[in-house]
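Retro notes (design track)

What went well: tokenization of the new backbones is finally stable.
What didn't: we kept losing track of which sequence belonged to which structure.
Fix going forward: every design gets posted as structure first, then sequence, in one message. First example under the new rule, 456 residues:
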């Protein structure tokens, strides 16, 4: 689709002594820029770094993840040495991208730099990177960006803004009851008072973000994390840089200060539809983002229902895998992703490019406890998605007769997406909606989709 970008106004933002001209985007231009992402619905998050080599284990403790350096209290010199041994000889970009594709995912987001500050890409501005500071000596982001370009997936990168345990100038905490320095590297850089975020921002963040946007071809999304200490002017400066270098790039809200294109609920799915675009990021393991050899995994059934739940509320689902230090995506993740892909092969029509539910109450309700606290109680009977002229009902349960609210328009035909014959199911009006007669067996015990074709 042709991109229409009309710049209607300019606001002037003062960033220190420097005046930055920031074009204001029309809603239409933003919608155009976001279109592929809104349609995509399902992406792969990849947490991969030096920490992956430990598999979560350090000095006999096995509950570490991507926070290894911090949670295991490893001094920087020791972590550097550990990172220098990073050698993912089994890494095959085509295999990872092939798996994402087989899972039905449309984009990948890879950790270019997590909180440990070790860049997983070739960074000419900072030698602490996989090419210059590890035995591997190659750039996995280059390989992944090329593999994505070949197979039509969008290549996107994660960058931790507000934590960097290799840089002496990154303060944390001090807000909302959090102690100063609570997530800083206080082992190597104990003087929290002397830390100056802007020095780190100028020295490391800006050059590296520029590198990410100039070394790998089109970047679909810049996915920032931990924006706590970034100033409004600094967030605006990053946005301006991204818009200048890659005008089509989407930016998540963690660029800070209410900027960015979409919201990022983490490890949770909102209770209902949201007005702004949003994406739930979630681990495929029970809780840890980086590779951990002892952690359990979520059920494939629940992952499929989560994807449907998210799509029915108008969001995207960014599901995370944690490859090993050798460069392999763990087998339990592979199995789950392949299961999701099989489901999407049959039912993708009811996910990709779809709009949210035209109903709403089916997702659950709020219960008020005696102390006045409201908690959301989710219901898992069915969900709905839409596209022009169609409503899709994703059934998690399989009654003989499915009662639905009034679809608002006459139903011409109801049929199962899994039925190549599109055999008509009997639909009868009830007092306040419709009833669909279902065949005896559900085509899929996890989620079977009924398509309601509506009169235009
Ligand atoms: O990259 C993933 C997380 O590492 C990162 N965001 C996602 C996408 C993240 N950074 N901060 N946080 C999440 C929130 C803080 C989590 C913590 Fe903890 C809980 C810090 C201390 C307790 C879990 C346990 C992580 C470290 C120890």
């Amino acid at each position: 689709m042709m991109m229409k970008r009309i710049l209607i106004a300019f606001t002037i933002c003062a960033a220190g002594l420097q005046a930055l001209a920031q074009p204001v985007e029309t809603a239409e231009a933003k919608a155009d820029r976001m279109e592929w992402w809104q349609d995509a619905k399902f992406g792969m998050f990849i947490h991969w770094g030096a920490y992956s080599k430990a598999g979560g284990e350090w000095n006999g403790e096995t509950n570490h993840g991507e926070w290894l350096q911090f949670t295991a209290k490893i001094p920087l010199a020791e972590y550097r040495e550990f990172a220098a041994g990073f050698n993912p000889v089994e890494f095959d970009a085509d295999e990872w991208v092939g798996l994402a594709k087989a899972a039905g995912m449309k984009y990948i987001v890879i950790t270019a730099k997590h909180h440990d500050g070790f860049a997983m890409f070739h960074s000419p501005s900072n030698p602490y990177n996989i090419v210059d500071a590890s035995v591997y000596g190659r750039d996995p982001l280059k390989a992944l960006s090329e593999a994505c370009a070949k197979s039509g997936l969008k290549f996107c990168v994660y960058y931790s803004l507000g934590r960097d345990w290799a840089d002496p100038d990154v303060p944390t905490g001090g807000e909302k009851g959090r102690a100063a320095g609570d997530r800083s590297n206080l082992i190597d850089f104990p003087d929290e008072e002397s830390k100056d975020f802007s020095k780190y921002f100028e020295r490391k963040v800006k050059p590296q973000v520029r590198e990410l946007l100039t070394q790998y071809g089109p970047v679909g999304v810049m996915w920032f994390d931990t924006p706590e200490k970034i100033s409004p002017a600094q967030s605006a400066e990053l946005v301006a840089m991204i818009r200048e270098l890659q005008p089509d790039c989407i930016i998540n809200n963690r660029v800070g200060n209410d900027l960015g294109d979409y919201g990022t609920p983490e490890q949770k799915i909102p209770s209902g539809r949201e007005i702004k675009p949003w994406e739930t990021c979630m681990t495929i393991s029970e809780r840890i983002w980086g590779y951990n050899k002892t952690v359990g995994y979520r059920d494939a059934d629940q992952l499929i229902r989560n994807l449907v739940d998210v799509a029915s509320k108008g969001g995207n689902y960014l599901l995370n895998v944690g490859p090993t230090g050798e460069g392999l995506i763990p087998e339990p993740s592979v199995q789950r992703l392949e299961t999701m892909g099989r489901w999407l092969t049959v039912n993708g029509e009811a996910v990709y490019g779809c709009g949210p539910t035209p109903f709403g109450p089916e997702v659950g309700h709020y219960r008020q406890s005696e102390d006045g606290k409201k908690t959301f109680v989710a219901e898992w009977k069915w969900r709905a998605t839409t596209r022009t002229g169609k409503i899709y009902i994703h059934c998690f349960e399989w009654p003989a007769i499915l009662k639905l609210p009034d679809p608002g328009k006459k139903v011409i035909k109801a049929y199962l997406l899994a039925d190549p014959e599109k055999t008509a199911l009997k639909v009868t009006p009830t007092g306040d909606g419709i009833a669909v007669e279902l065949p005896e067996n559900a085509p899929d015990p996890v989620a079977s989709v009924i398509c309601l074709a509506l009169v235009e």
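Added context from the reviewer: The domain at 23-350 is CATH 3.20.20.80 (TIM Barrel).
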